[in-house]
Amino acid sequence: MTIKDIARMAGVSRATVSKILNNYTDVSEKTRRKVLQIVEETGYQPAFSAQTLSAKRTNLIGVIYAGNINADLTHPFFVEVVNAFKKQIGELGYDLLFFSNEKFRNSQENYLARCQYFRLDGCIIINGMDIETAITELDQSDLPCIGVDIQLTGKKSGFIMTDNRKASAIVVEHFYLAGYRSIAYISGQRDCDIGNARKEGYIQALNQFGISVREEWIQYGDYREQSGYEAMKHLLKQRPYPRAVYTASDLMAFGAIRAIKEAGLSVPDDVAVIGFDDIHACQYSDPTLTTIRQNKEKIGKLAAFMLFDLIKNQVQSSNVMVEPELVIRQSCGGRVE
Amino acid sequence: MTIKDIARMAGVSRATVSKILNNYTDVSEKTRRKVLQIVEETGYQPAFSAQTLSAKRTNLIGVIYAGNINADLTHPFFVEVVNAFKKQIGELGYDLLFFSNEKFRNSQENYLARCQYFRLDGCIIINGMDIETAITELDQSDLPCIGVDIQLTGKKSGFIMTDNRKASAIVVEHFYLAGYRSIAYISGQRDCDIGNARKEGYIQALNQFGISVREEWIQYGDYREQSGYEAMKHLLKQRPYPRAVYTASDLMAFGAIRAIKEAGLSVPDDVAVIGFDDIHACQYSDPTLTTIRQNKEKIGKLAAFMLFDLIKNQVQSSNVMVEPELVIRQSCGGRVE
DNA sequence: CTGAAAGCGCTTACAG
DNA sequence: CTGAAAGCGCTTACAG
């Protein structure tokens, strides 16, 4: 069943059928009705590949998890963002193509070439560790791209992320108002942009409150539980040890809590802890974990609209910082030192 | 840059270039080298739409989250399965197309038509609640389909799921060996196939051990925390109340634990609990939760191979049950009644 | 081993 | 308002 069949059945030309299907206005109401009815009856659907070959757009958006040590589908933060993105971009009429990086990785990874191969209308790039240069190439091309947690700079690119400095400021302020003055920070890897933004926010906030920054109270982990555990052990060896700890991920907070308990101390009575991410387990841990929640819904939704505007040429490259929120539970205490 | 350009530059015909790119063998080594070199130099890539229009296959697999109340990308179990599936099917040379259901849903949802529109090579169908008839239509078509947690019956379809009866048998046996004789079950919705399989397994296992089944010890929830809490409150009102509880999800187990604690009782000393899913929070809850872990890796990977075989016509419709595993933590106790 | 030609199923100026 | 025709960029018999 092709457009030719429909044209024949309706007694019109293929061009006319095509126009009707694409909502052109210069067609008589009578012809339109007849054709539409036949389309309805037959259940005719145009073929994607023929449409794409002939027209330019595909209404297809690529989803790229960038980085060699790459966050995959299961990443708890990004999956929520991508889900919200998918919903919104779906409303706008786009489907999603997920590149399978496997084969691809073995050869030279050329994201741009793959986008061109499928003639994607745009793509969303999820940040990972150890970003490939192929991402830069894509970014600098004229394919519309939106980065999540990664700063894209191309003329047809934009990015969106949580305001990580702000998040740290909120945490430090919360600790400060609860009376804490000795506040440590367990960061992500030293070369992680996100972790560094959080660190800078932490330092800036301490300065603002006139609290001097102690280098030995800044530890580095890898966002995982074990690294938080080890970082906390280092912190506890110091005299005095910090009475409040802010970690760049919830998992590291869980690790820190484990270390604190092992030392015979209590959370939050001896050491207060605030994490980052608000993963599901925060509600069920002992104690329940105070943490920073990123507005994943909003990030995903905004990414969809920003990409759409870029595609429709309605806008220049844009970038947005989204407000974080502190979710207060048991782990952060509230006593005066 | 098209195949025409490459042909011109190499001084051969388009047909020859096409053959070389598609690994035909009836081409002289010399021509092959020359063409390949030019392809390399120019970075030429064929256009997906032209290839698809002309050939039949797309190397594209559709991912469908079925059901009106539909599990989305963020579902903790399915996301792991889909991730493993993506990796394996990627190795086999396929990319993934995620249908955006939004627009689509408003009209009559026609999965089959959409698959045909994109000329997908096959698809994977993730079970949800309240499955549409459009899924049946897809299942019965001759497009290769693999269902996860959903029994497909078409001649080109297969399915894969955890052996849910077996899982229940393992749980009941574990309780039995720990000395428990009064074992309750908190199920999913009454019309949920998965929940029912687990229920039947539970009943069968009780029978096997000569323990009589008490209808009032079977409660129904909706897999969420609150429903587990309420179901447990009902169970605790009974005299005697059960000393061991098996729930069809971890979240319901957390709800049950909350109810038990609220009643001034202890887990596992007064009531032992075993959940289902092994979500991340099980490791951090108080007490940590004993639970059934499904082999998501294996399910995803098998789904990929099964679908591949179906596509390549190497196999008839197949279906597989995957072994579950009991992960023992603190909540299940181990004392004699 | 190589190429001319038809065809895949659409869309888009263009002419009427 | 409608249609003939060219074209999108490939692949695939088929002939040589």
From TrEMBL, chains A, B:
UniProt xrefs under Pfam families: LacI (PF00356), Peripla_BP_3 (PF13377)
Database matches in InterPro entries: Cro/C1-type_HTH (IPR001387), HTH_LacI (IPR000843), LacI/GalR-like_sensor (IPR046335), Lambda_DNA-bd_dom_sf (IPR010982), Peripla_BP_I (IPR028082)
Keyword Transcription annotated: yes
Domain HTH lacI-type: 1-55
Domain of life assignment: Bacteria
GO MF annotation: an example: DNA binding
Keywords on record: DNA-binding, Transcription, Transcription regulation
Domain HTH cro/C1-type: 1-31
Keyword Transcription annotated: yes
The protein's name: LacI family DNA-binding transcriptional regulator
